[in-house]
């Protein structure tokens, strides 16, 4: 044997994996809640970033832990500032879809230097958040690859 066959098998597995096979549950907050409450939520949910939606449930932004730290070291009253004032907002949000390959999602994370991507679905009323892909998702897939191929 050369290593070629197993190398091809690994490539086949990697290109077959879709976002929907590995996506996790998104943490979503509404854009009118305060920065203070967003920080509490970040700790409660134990995540690095959260997706922000309008009251109707459409994706409007992303807040990361560093976004929240940046605001928290300023002098603002965090209980009075709504999260939509400081989030990264649409249309500058990088998203993915459940049928995308996991490989393309990983490429987006690296290209944009971000930790997470919302998985979205276009509905009649707007962009709905149905999942998330993070660097942890990619690490989990990396380990699954070694299990599937007895590495
Ligand atoms: P952190 O800032 O905590 O290290 P990230 O690296 O994910 O977390 O975020 C870096 C910046 O990019 C932040 O300002 C954040 O709001 C923004 N960001 C995070 N995820 C996305 C995304 N999917 N699309 C666009 N911007 C994003």
TrEMBL record:
The keyword Repeat applies. Keywords: CBS domain, Repeat. The keyword Nucleotide-binding does not apply. Signal peptide: none annotated. Residues 14-78, 87-151 form the CBS domain. This is Helix-turn-helix transcriptional regulator. The chain holds residues 62 to 212 of 212 of the full protein.
